[in-house]
Amino acid sequence: MKKTIISLCAALALVACGQKEQVTLTASGLNPADFVSEYNGAPTALYTLTNEAGMEVCITNFGGRIVSIMVPDRDGKMQDVVLGFDKISDYFPENNASDFGAAIGRYANRINQGRFTLDGTEYQLPQNNFQHCLHGGPTGWQYQVYECVEADATHVKLLRVSPDGDNNFPGEVKAYVTYTLTPDNKIDIAYEATTSAPTIINMTNHSYFNLSGDPNNPITDDLLCLNSTSFTPVDNTYMTTGEILPTENTPFDFRTLAVIGDRINADDEQIRNGNGYDHNWVLDTQGDITKLAGLLYSPASGITLKLYTDEPGVQIYTGNFLDGTVTGKKGIVYKQRSAICLETQHYPDSPNKPQWPSVVLRPGETYHSHCIYAFSVKD
Fold first, then answer.
1. What is the span of the domain harbouring residue 236?
2. Could you tell me which residues come within 8 angstroms of residue 233 by beta carbon, excluding any fewer than 6 positions away?
3. pTM of the model
4. How far apart, in whole angstroms, are the C-alpha atoms of residue 204 and residue 103?
5. Active-site annotation, residues
6. pLDDT for 116-165, tens place per residue?
7. How many domains does the chain have?
8. In Å, how far are 166, 231, 241, 271, 279 from 347, measured between CA atoms?
């Protein structure tokens, strides 16, 4: 049965390419054949989701990544609103060590000095970012091949089996991420995981959004609103201090729609520490996924992204480290602040902050996390 499922996934992902004229591109201009490869002996492919409204989402099982999202702008023209690459080899870390679109695990964001203690045992993780462990380490799940276990025209379910000791994390973890494209232009992302031994887990999606459809346009012109009255400040190594501070009267106050660029270069210690916005906002939604967590709007295209999640926080990252050295889809060079990430999550370094919501997963329990990116148009 497993072989049958894998064969079905492969059949849905691949396009016959015996004759050049028979190649069928996705609406975003991708050639699925350019995503057929292997990494560490595991096969990669491209999966295309569509709905009757004309929206299209392309996903690769390498890193569980969203490669493209095609949505209509105010004029009805389809726009690709995420950064990424045209072929699978560009996602391989030896070519581009990027997080574009990835399903991050085991632990999204940073763990202080790569160390945490669980049930009296201290674990030392790789230190790959300012001596901290970032996004699960240098060989985190964004650089691993997920197995496709289900796929059809509107959803794909991917599995990552992370062995005990993977980047020094304890326990064998079986993690699923399911992407579903709904009829009303929502990308529903559901995560679940189990473990063979006590461990920590914190998954997220790391899509880089540019709602104008043109990464040459900076996201500093976009408007952002967050259902949040507080955030977790960081030091100059991007590590949370353990405090939770109010956003009122600070550049972090997005309780009402505000232009991102208006305060992104403010004379503020936290702005300097983050090189812009690279912080976790504490959501006031109390884990209720029916409540709006955030809203992003592009005046250039009229495209709106509404964010819903059952997570307690969201990391807003404004592409501060994009520097023009990476060339993405359609040959576009990705410059600083050409995208923004909305990463739903538990707070950074929660394993070392017992006062914050726990990220511990134990045998017999199932980890769940849920995120919805809902697209619409404002005239």
1. 219-350
2. 240, 241, 243, 245, 270, 273, 279
3. 0.94
4. 6
5. 206, 343
6. 999 999 999 999 999 999 999 999 999 999 999 999 999 999 999 999 99
7. 2
8. 22, 10, 11, 18, 10
